[in-house]
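**Reference record**
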Amino acid sequence: MRFKLTASASAAALVLGFFVAVVATAPPASASVASQAAAAVRYANERGYRSSIAVMDTQTGAFTGAGDYNSTYASESLVKVFIATRLLMTGQMSGWNESAAYRMITQSDDAAASALYGRVGGDGIVDWIEQALNVPNIGSGPPSPGWWGATRVTASGMVRFYNAVRHRPAVWNWLGNAMHNATPYGSDGVYQFFGIPSATTGFGVKQGWGNDNPQGQPAFNSTGYVNGDRYAVAILTQGGTYGTPIANMLTAQAKLLMPGGKIANDSPFGGVSSWSVHGRYLTVRGWALDPNALSSGLRIFFYVNGKPFTYVQTTEPRGDINAHYSATGNHGFTKALKLANGANNVCAYAINVGAGSNTKLGCKSVPLNGSPLGGISSVTQKGNLATFTGWSFDYDAPHTALTVVANVNGRFAGAVGSTVSRPDINQAFRGTGLHGYRISVRLPAGSSTVCLHALNQGPGTESRLGCKTFRVSLSPIGMIDSVTVQGSQAVVSGWTFDFNNTSQAIGVVIDRNDKHVAWGPTTIERSDVNSSWAITGKHGFSRTVQLAAGANELCVYAVNIGSGGSNPLLGCRTV
C-alpha cells in the first residue's frame, strides 16, 4: 500500500572533426526514457499484467509515458499523498494530525489514513487536489463511499501531481522529507521496498498495494522521486498473483526503466529564447545546461540544412537559470549566423558532457530570396504633397544606397536615392553607407494610394516598402485674411488655390448680401502660401467692393477648376 518514484536519461556520443566534437543528428534526450518505459510495460504485458508508466522531469517539465498511462488504476495507498497535501495546504498539519500523517506516509499506515480521510474532504479529495494544484486527469473518487483504497489514479496524473508538489515548498518540504524516510516494511508488516526502492538509491517514495479494483485483481503501485528528486516516476501494475509475484514484477519493471539505478537522461537541456533575422544575419539567443556539469559552460553547435555551420560557447550569465536549477557558471549564449540566399533550416544543439547525448534545442526556417528589406518610418501630408521617410537595405549589397520608387495609383510618381544616414540600420544589418530616404510626391485630387518600392541589387526582386492612402480635396481651399473698410468701400483680401492645378490662378467671387459684387482671378504673389503648401503661381486676391447703407455681409467663394468639386465658401464678414 505504499510506494516511490524515479527518472532516467539518454546517452550517445557525437564527433565532428571540424570544430570540436559533435554529430549532425543527435537523438532527443527523452528517446531512451521512452524506450525503457515501453520495454518495462511490454515486459509486464507479455506476462499477463496490465501496466502503465509515467516519468516527468521536474526541471524541464518533459513528460514520457508508456502503456495506458492516461487510464485509471486503483490507487491503493497512493491516495495518502493527497491526504497529506491537503492537510499541508489547509494549515492542518500539526499535532496529532502531523504524527498520524507521518506514519501514513512513511509506514503506509491504514488506520492513520482512515482517521484523516474525513478531515480532508473524504471522497472529494482527488477533485480538490486537481483544482488546488491545477493538475488535470489525476483520477477520480472511489466507486463506493469511504472506500479510499479504490480511489482511481492515472500514471500521468501522479507524476504531474509530484511535479507540482516539487515546486511548492509549503508541501514539498514536509511531504518530500516523509517520502524520503519511507520504511522498508509497512505498519502491516508488508515489505514495501518493491519497485523503485529495489532499483535505485536516494529515492523518495509512496507505494501502494491491495486489490481494491472492480476486477478484484492485485494492484501494486510504485511512485515517487529519483535522480536527486529531479524525476517523478509512477509505475502502476495490475493482475497476476497477490504478494511476492506482483511485487517482483514491479521491481523488474523499475530495473528496466532505470538501468544502472537511475533515469538515463543525463543529456543537456535548454532552449532557444529568440530567433532574430536582420537581413542576411540570424541572431540566436538561448541557454543550455548539462545535469552532469551544472557549473560548466556548454558548446552550442548550429547546423544549416543538415550540415555543420558554426558553434558558440555558453558564456553569458543567466541568473534565472542558475536559481531555478541550482546551478552556477554561465549558461546563456548569443550567436549571429550569416546565411546564404535560399532555404535555410537552422538547428541548434547543446553538446553533451559525460553520459547522455547531444540535445536539439530548436530549429528555425529562414528563407532568404535576396530581395531588399526596408520600411516607411514616417508619413506627412500637406495638401496635395505627401512626404515619406524610411530605410531600405539589400543584404546582397550591404554598403550600397538603393533607389526608392514611388507610385501613385499604380503609376510612377518619382524616385530618390537612399541619401540619409541611418546608423541604426547599419548596426542592425552590419552594413555601411547611406540607407535612409526622404521622398515627396504630388497627390491628385480625390482619393489615391501611394506605394514605395526599393529596387533590388543582385539576386532577388524589388520589394514593396509599404503603401499609404490619402485624400485630397476636389474643391479649392483658401481663406479671407482681412476686410478693411475705407469710407463706402471695403477691401477684401485672402488666398485660394485648387489642388487640381496648384500653379494655376483661379477665380474668386464676392457676394454682398447674397448678390455678386466683385469677381476675378487670383493675381497676387503669395510666397507664404507657396512655401507652406510647396506650390507655385499667384494665389492671392484683393478686391474692392462698394458697400450699401446698413449692414453688409461680404462672402467670398473660390471657383473650382477641376471635375467633381464645388465652389467652396472661403468665409464671410459683416461690416
Q: What stands out?
A: The first helix runs from residue 31 to 45.
